[in-house]
Amino acid sequence: MENSNLMKNYPFLDDIWNKYNFDKAVDSDESSIISLCNNDITYKVNPANEQKNICKKLLRNLKLLHSGNYMPYDFVKYCKNINYWLYYEIKEHNISDDIINNMFAESNKIIEKKEGYPDCSYFTFKKDLLEPEKLVTLRIFNNNIDNIREILINKCDSNICSCQKFINQCVDLYTDLHKNYCSNGDVTNPTKIGTCDIVNKFRTHYDGYLPRGKIKYEFPVLSYNTPTNIIGNCQSEETVSETASPLKDNQSDSSIIQNASHALAAMAGIPPFLVLIYKVNITIIQIYEHYLKYTIIFPCSIK
Questions:
Q1: DSSP structural state of residue 210
Q2: CB 3.0–4.6 Å: which of 14, 27, 235, 260 could bond 7 by disulfide?
């Protein structure tokens, strides 16, 4: 599943998604949702079981959105994230816009809308947009900029490297889309207008909301040929595992120290008990240096 691949590549997005529980199975006590989604009339066609399951999750998500005590900004953000989740479901299961629109229409039968709040309607990426897959990724960045900002500022967040790499991918997508569709000033047809609106909003969020003054690493400046190999001080898991000294290396170091101490004693005529003290001190220093390695790699392990 495309959505799962995105979360696998960028685990911090999985944490954001899990706050909403979009994929959670619908409880059996949600009888009104189950009844609507099991009814073929809802789809105007003979639906597959997977389409019924998506319908149940969608209506449950919309119901939770409208029944929650969300401020208008959070309400809109929640609604947009529902649409991003839905995009990957539609893509995987090849569901038509007509069927999705029918699901949203049926939701009005069981969902009480809040006065003063906008309606959470379906946003299709199939019409009037170029390269929707790339645009969905940029919109996920735009819609979750506050979460991204919080992760970057919180230096102890385990998702910080995943977040940085996601930003770099977004910069690559922006560079490609802007160069191909939005840079020559000929943005007049509806398809280009919709595409470039998302692209330009990414630039606004990227330039205006990332906490550059509060973090020690740099992100690339947006341009037509932006280099995106900047990922701060992130280390891969392989690098971390290589940094930890294996036991045989420690044994080798001990042998070197032992040989050096014997040579020192032989050359300088140092009494054996002083050589022993020297060896103990060197061992303690080694242990402390090994400890410091891990405090550098994992700064949040020390409270």
A1: S
A2: 14
Q: Are 184 and 242 in contact (CB under 8 A)?
A: no
Measured in residues, the chain has a length of 303
Q: How far is CA 55 from CA 38, 94, 147, 203, 265, in A?
A: 9, 14, 28, 34, 80
Last residue of a domain, one of 124, 143, 163: 124
Residue that is last in its domain, among 234, 269, 284: 234
pLDDT of the residue at 282: 52
Distance in angstroms (rounded) separating the CA atoms of residues 139 and 202: 7
pLDDT < 50 regions, the chain: 1, 236-257, 260-261, 263-268, 273-276, 278, 280, 284, 287-303
Query: pTM of the full predicted structure?
Result: 0.71
For residues 215 and 221, what is the distance between their CA atoms, to the nearest angstrom?
15
For residue 296, the model assigns a pLDDT of 37
Contacts of 222 (CB under 8 A, 6+ apart): 171, 174, 175, 203, 206, 207
Q: Can you give the pLDDT at residue 158?
A: 75
pLDDT tens digit string along 241-293? 343 444 344 444 444 445 544 544 444 455 554 444 545 455 545 544 444 34
133 lies in the same domain as 251: no
7-16 in b/e form (b: 16+ CB < 10 A) is beebebbbbb
CA-based end-to-end distance of the chain: 39
Q: Name the residue with tokens 């700064």.
A: 299
Residue found by looking up tokens 């001080």 in the block: 233
User: What is the rounded distance in angstroms from the CA atom of residue 140 to the CA atom of residue 163?
Assistant: 12
| pLDDT confidence of residue 302 | 38
Q: How far apart are CA 133 and CA 186, in angstroms?
A: 23
Identify whether residues 114 and 146 lie together within a single domain: no
> For residue 24, what are the CA distances in angstroms to 17, 147, 299, 300?
11, 22, 34, 31
